[in-house]
């Protein structure tokens, strides 16, 4: 080989090694690992006050997210045949058909990665500035005042978190953040009518309240809890995902689908429920688990609209499932000043009611429309051995949280340590079993651990911006007095009638929750809506659960219905058709919050719970039978469906009149369903069951 060719080959190899994508990949991996280790080390050491820790956490998280955005731009682009709107750019330019809008899009697409890298640098610089001047900003600034640079840094932080929110979660919540700042400005506030009028802030006050006074972006609950309790669980979820937990859940689902007449339908719900509880975003969960479950549902014969709605409802409901509740459980415990275990307890029965109703509804829908799956075999329990090691970290989590009553931060730390240990032992065991316990096994251990650290950091990074942006929104809403005036208005419009106030609170919670991830939706509705309900005498935990449920259900409520929109894109279905089916499946969810206001023992457990829970459960079943229009044996006429609705309301709210009404209604629903199955002679467990017939 000649010297020239050798030089050319070496130059080519060097250019391949040091492409923008390879450099960004390395930077993202390194920063993600540092971000995760920083969070874990703080959980271990509590090295300084949480506010100071949160600032560094903010800088690392924002920088990681922006670098990942830039990396994805380069990763998705084809440098050989770059495309614009699906066509090769060269051909578009040659024909002269490129529009002005397309040119703008193309130019923005080229510079956006550079903007993202610049913003990553600004995030690190701004938070480094706050860290360097932390003592002055926390203590001395109240006497000495802020410098001009302080104010500029405050503005930069606000801009960064709003832009990061826009990129990660879309324009809706970013627009709310921008709107809250505009609303707070002195040019706007004094000129607004009625309940919205206020004196207003100038830009310096917005910078101070929004960030540099270590409020707003650094909100004690949102960023404080988000950077500790929330972060440690999201990171755990990412590490577990890297060690194969998600793959194991899906494998179990496929195996169960072979043995169940309903096939993968119920398994899709369970998988989405489990992952949805951890992700903190119904939309994100729909996108991730839906990419697996929706094609599986369609392969079984489930209609496109229904497949999309199943995933959307399950993902939205996953946000309500303890122990994480879409990370809202941690925020709720801090805001209410109660034990985290109390929040888990309060959320168990409402979540069980919702998921049991959805499960029954899906079972009846599968039977009604003939989407049953032929039994191709029995469940192979031996496959559970492949993931039995995941039970150990989950057991550690439950013991440390529930029995030992450790803080979520400490419990999360022990759980992460445990999953690293059991994951490593699994790799060692596999290597020993295959007689390959050598240097390659050690290398695999290291790669697996680094992958877990990297995945954990990347899972948390998108949430950093939205938590900080929500802090800005809450600061603007609180200091302008809007939250107090909204609550007063709701009470005034309700005319002192609890039912009317609850209905208004429901509408407001759905509206404020549209398109938002779980932490953002919950915090916004709690600040704006919850005080009015509490003033009507509803207990605090019940009120928080009430508004939280409706904020979550906004994910399946038109016109936004963000989870349905994502699910329908994956399924290739009609958005409005999927919305209709999602509302049918999720219908009991819109009634359950009223039920636990009426039957408060569902939240605060007592002896009355022994009656209230089965009665309300029967009511939810009756309600879903009415919305699906099938009772396990036959299609139901509209008059019969109306009777089921009346009985369902009696079972759920009959205690207002007399406990006997509640019991009688629940017994009637159960009796009717037993009659449909036994007296009509229709056994839904028979393997040779034919398609259901109408009345």
From TrEMBL:
InterPro entries: DctM (IPR010656), TRAP_DctM-Dct_fused (IPR011853). Keywords: Membrane, Plasmid, Transmembrane, Transmembrane helix. It comes from the Archaea. It holds the Pfam family DctM. Residues 160-603 form the TRAP C4-dicarboxylate transport system permease DctM subunit domain. The chain crosses the membrane at residues 21-44, 50-67, 111-130, 142-162, 169-188, 222-243, 264-284, 324-344, 351-371, 383-404, 411-429, 460-482, 494-514, 520-539, 546-568, 574-596, 608-630, 642-674. This is TRAP transporter fused permease subunit. It comes from Natronorubrum aibiense. The lineage of its organism: Archaea, Methanobacteriati, Methanobacteriota, Stenosarchaea group, Halobacteria.
């Amino acid at each position: 080989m000649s010297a020239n060719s050798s030089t050319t080959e070496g130059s080519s190899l060097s250019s391949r090694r040091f492409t923008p994508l390879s450099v960004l990949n390395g930077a993202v991996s390194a920063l993600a690992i540092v971000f995760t280790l920083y969070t874990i080390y703080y959980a271990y050491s509590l090295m300084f006050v949480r506010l100071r820790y949160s600032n560094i956490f903010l800088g690392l998280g924002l920088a990681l997210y922006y670098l990942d955005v830039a990396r994805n731009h380069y990763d998705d682009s084809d440098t050989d045949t770059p495309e614009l709107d699906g066509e090769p750019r060269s051909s578009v330019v040659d024909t002269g058909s490129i529009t002005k809008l397309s040119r703008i899009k193309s130019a923005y697409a080229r510079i956006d990665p550079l903007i993202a890298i610049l913003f990553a640098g600004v995030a690190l610089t701004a938070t480094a500035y706050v860290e360097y001047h932390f003592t002055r900003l926390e203590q001395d600034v109240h006497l000495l005042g802020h410098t001009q640079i302080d104010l500029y840094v405050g503005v930069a932080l606000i801009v960064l978190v709003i832009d990061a929110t826009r990129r990660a979660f879309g324009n809706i919540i970013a627009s709310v953040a921008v709107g809250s700042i505009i609303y707070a400005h002195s040019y706007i506030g004094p000129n607004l009518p009625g309940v919205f009028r206020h004196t207003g802030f100038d830009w310096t006050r917005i910078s101070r309240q929004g960030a540099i006074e270590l409020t707003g972006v650094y909100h004690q609950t949102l960023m404080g809890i988000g950077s500790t309790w929330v972060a440690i669980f999201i990171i755990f979820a990412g590490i577990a995902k890297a060690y194969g937990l998600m793959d194991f859940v899906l494998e179990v689902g496929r195996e169960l689908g072979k043995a169940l007449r309903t096939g993968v339908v119920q398994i899709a719900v369970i998988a989405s429920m489990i992952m949805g509880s951890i992700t903190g975003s119904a939309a994100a969960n729909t996108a991730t688990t839906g990419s697996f479950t929706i094609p599986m549902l369609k392969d079984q014969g489930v209609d496109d609209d229904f497949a999309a709605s199943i995933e959307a409802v399950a993902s939205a409901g996953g946000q309500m499932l303890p122990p994480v509740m879409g990370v809202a459980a941690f925020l709720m415990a801090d805001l209410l000043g109660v034990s985290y275990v109390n929040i888990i307890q309060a959320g168990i029965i409402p979540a069980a009611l919702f998921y049991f109703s959805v499960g029954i509804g899906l079972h009846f829908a599968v039977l009604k429309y003939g989407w049953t799956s032929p039994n191709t075999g029995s469940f192979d329990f031996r496959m559970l051995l492949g993931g039995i090691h995941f039970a150990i970290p989950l057991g550690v989590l439950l013991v440390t949280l529930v029995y030992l009553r450790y803080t979520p931060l400490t419990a999360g730390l022990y759980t992460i340590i445990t999953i690293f240990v059991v994951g490593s032992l699994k790799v060692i065991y596999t290597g020993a079993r295959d007689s390959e316990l050598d240097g390659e096994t050690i290398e695999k251990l290291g790669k697996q651990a680094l992958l877990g650290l990297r995945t954990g950091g990347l899972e948390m990074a998108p949430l950093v911006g939205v938590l900080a942006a929500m802090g800005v929104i809450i600061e603007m809403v609180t200091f302008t007095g809007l939250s107090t005036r909204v609550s007063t208005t709701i009470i005034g419009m309700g005319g002192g009638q609890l039912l009317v106030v609850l209905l208004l609170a429901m509408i407001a919670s759905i509206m404020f929750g549209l398109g938002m991830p779980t932490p953002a939706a919950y915090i916004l509705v709690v600040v704006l809506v919850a005080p009015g309900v509490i003033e009507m005498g509803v207990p605090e935990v019940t009120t928080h659960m009430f508004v939280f449920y409706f904020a979550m259900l906004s994910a399946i409520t038109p016109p936004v219905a963000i989870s349905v929109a994502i699910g329908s894109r994956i399924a290739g279905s009609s958005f409005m058709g999927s919305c209709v089916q999602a509302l049918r499946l999720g219908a009991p969810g819109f009634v359950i919050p009223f039920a636990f206001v009426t039957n408060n023992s569902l939240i605060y457990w007592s002896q009355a719970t022994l009656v209230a829970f089965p009665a309300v459960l029967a009511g939810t079943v009756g309600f879903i039978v009415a919305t699906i229009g099938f009772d396990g044996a036959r299609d139901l006429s509209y008059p019969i469906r109306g009777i089921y609705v009346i009985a369902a309301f009696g079972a759920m709210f009959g205690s207002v009149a007399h406990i006997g009404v509640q019991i009688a209604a629940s017994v009637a629903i159960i009796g009717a369903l037993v009659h449909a199955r036994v007296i009509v002679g229709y056994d839904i467990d028979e393997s040779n069951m034919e398609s259901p017939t109408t009345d």
